[in-house]
Amino acid sequence: VHFSEYSHTYEFSTLDSFCALEGFTPQQLFLSAISIANFSLTGKHNSYIHGISSGRSILPEHAEHAIGLLIKNIHLGWAWEPTDTLRTIVTKVIEGQTFGLTMEHLPPNGMHHGLEIPDLLFVYENYPYDKVAGAQLAGTLIHNQERTGYPLTLLVMPNGNHIQFKVIYNEHRFSQTLIKYVISQITETMLMFLSDIDQPLINQTFSP
Question: Which one is predicted more confidently, 50 or 9?
């Protein structure tokens, strides 16, 4: 199996201020944007993807004592209606994310009909490397090679107002043209959130 990588960086200049005002996190908005991108591609609005979760968070005042993070695989599911507003969609996706955090591996029977993208792993890399450096702890990243067992892995890596999208994909199952289109749909949806999150999704048109 041969994997390829595609990277794209986009600037969301108002993302932090928007999240502070509305009470959302960037991760929640990007997950919601993925659900809408899936809808624009498949017409399905009830699905799930895979994600990874840290078993514990880290605060700056605890950085010197941080040793490692417990990582577990979770299911991030959603069920919303195309007539919902963007805000309602985000709220429902957050509810699915909260539920997924309570599950260890598989969703219970009867959950998530119409699974469209179960082979996607979503990773939001917000680990505070710049804060984990104290008198007793320091390190330098020498080499980093990211690989997973999923045919499609989407990494979202924030750096100030800039967001780097990095996609690792099985080129026998996905084309780079499709990958670029998915990223364009996600960025377009994020801009819709930032412009007017109370507008109905059905009022929006997506780029072909």
Answer: 9
Q: What is the mean pLDDT of the chain?
A: 78
Predicted local confidence at residue 199, as pLDDT: 94
Query: Which H or E element spans position 169?
Result: strand 162-170
How far apart, in whole angstroms, are the C-alpha atoms of residue 4 and residue 25?
Answer: 29
Give the torsion through C-alpha atoms of 45, 99, 72, 143, to 10 deg: 50
Nearest CA among 104, 94, 95 for reference residue 73: 104
Confidence of residue 46 (pLDDT cuts 50, 70, 90): confident
**Tokens standing for residue 165:** 């999208």
Query: In the chain, how many H helices and how many E strands?
Result: 4, 6
> Please, which pLDDT band fits residue 33 given cuts at 50, 70 and 90?
very high
- With H, G, I as helix, E, B as strand and everything else as coil, classify residue 3: strand
Task: Give the DSSP H or E segment for 32.
Answer: helix 26-42
